[in-house]
Design goal:
By secondary structure, the protein is an alpha/beta fold. It folds into 2 domains: 27-115, no CATH class; 120-254, Rossmann fold (3-Layer(aba) Sandwich). The protein is built from 10 helices and 9 strands. It has helices at residues 3-14, 20-27, 44-48, 61-73, 86-95, 137-149, 171-179, 193-200, 221-228, 243-254, and strands at 54-55, 78-82, 103-106, 111-115, 124-131, 152-157, 182-187, 205-209, 235-237. It has a 5-stranded parallel sheet with strand order 6-5-7-8-9, with helices on both faces. Helix 4 packs across helix 5 (86-95) and helix 6 runs parallel beside helix 10.
């Protein structure tokens, strides 16, 4: 039960629509449930301000479906599923049984959203997601869609890397960079984009190294080290290909 649900419950008691005993019973619900293969956290939204997210990679399609159903049955209106395979999507749609349980899936980012889609009219602030190249878009979309799921306005600036720096410093792109509350800079190869963006903006920059690049890129390690050694102030770094982590952190910054 999240903060909003608790407030609604207390309001119903205040209006006489629910008894104190019924409300107490709901509040006594266990904060998690042992499903054998998972212990879904029903109080995550109340503790942290955002509900539990399912990391799909490594889980079976059955496990993903059952965890999502369990979270929604305990009041979570929507569930974000990251690294969800096409096979897991197909299994979900074929076995969900409840026709009201929707699944919105994006194949590029491998993001699935079970339940209600977020209301974009209530999105706040401004997060800019910028990529060095088109090859970084799967990670970028994971970040962007995570931030949108959490209620943020997101602007995408894709393929604006240092190989063609004029694409980044044109008027339209610079207006977005200078008006952002937080920027997510995503790049592979040498990872230079984060330092450039950090030197142009007055807001926090979250750098995301990607595993894009030839042999000496070492699966993103070269970009990671470059970003960690950025001489631009205000640049923080998340793990290689961790678009979700960047989107979540950007949301926390944007909503402060």
């Amino acid at each position: 039960m999240d903060e909003k649900a608790i407030k609604e419950l207390l309001e119903s008691v205040k209006k006489g629509e629910s008894s104190i005993d019924d409300a107490l019973l709901k509040l006594k619900e266990a904060p998690f449930e042992d499903m054998g293969f998972a212990k879904p956290d029903f109080h995550r939204g109340l503790r942290q301000g955002a509900p539990e997210v399912i990391y799909g990679q490594g889980k079976t399609p059955y496990q993903i479906l059952e965890i999502a159903k369990k979270l929604i049955s305990h009041g979570q209106k929507s569930v974000l599923i990251t690294r969800m395979s096409v096979e897991a999507r197909d299994f979900f749609l074929q076995n969900k049984k409840d026709d009201s349980l929707e699944l919105n899936y994006d194949e590029l980012s491998r993001i699935g959203i079970a339940g209600q889609m977020p209301d974009k009219t209530k999105a706040v602030g401004k997060i800019v997601v910028a990529t060095g190249g088109t090859s970084d878009m799967p990670v970028a979309e994971e970040a962007a869609r995570t931030a949108e799921f959490l209620g943020n306005n997101v602007v995408r600036l894709y393929d604006v890397g240092v190989a063609g720096i004029h694409r980044l410093i044109n008027k339209e792109s610079m207006e977005h960079i200078m008006s952002a509350n937080v920027i997510i800079a995503i790049a592979g190869m040498e990872g230079a984009l984060a330092s450039v963006v950090g030197g142009l903006s007055d807001c926090p920059v979250i750098a995301v190294p990607t595993s894009v690049g030839y042999g000496a890129a070492f699966g993103g390690l070269a970009a990671l080290l470059s970003m960690l050694n950025s001489c631009a102030s205000g640049v923080s770094v998340v793990n290689i290909d961790n678009g979700f982590g960047a989107g979540y952190l950007a949301s926390m910054i944007n909503k402060k």
